[in-house]
Write the structure tokens for this entry.
Amino acid sequence: MRAVVQRVAEARVSPGGEVGAGLCVLLGVARGDSARDAAQLAQKIARLRIFENDEGRFDRSLLDTGGAALVVSQFTLFADTAKGNRPSFSAAAPQEEAEPVYDAFCAALRALGVEVATGVFGARMQVDLVNDGPVTLVLE
């Protein structure tokens, strides 16, 4: 799995939902990823200390702040451009394999008490966000 995590003041996806302060998570599922992988990544993201404390240091997590997460499926995170100019997405899981793992990731965040909004899996979507910081991390 691969995730691009952005700290946001607000984010929305259309079609889909929106959140206030928290995280926007662009989530790619690779071939062979499992619900267990999804749960582990959800734990990591929910506990990332990328929110500032009163002294301005990164010391608080999404769980500490009570923030929400907008989770958007993004198979293009597995683009391979090593050969030519047209990206290959062969490392990305096919939809029938990826969607249950994506759902497991969202369920794992919710089980931790995080409010989760999502896009529509497999749809063409428009994502709008206000990156706070900016703070952007790539996790695998």
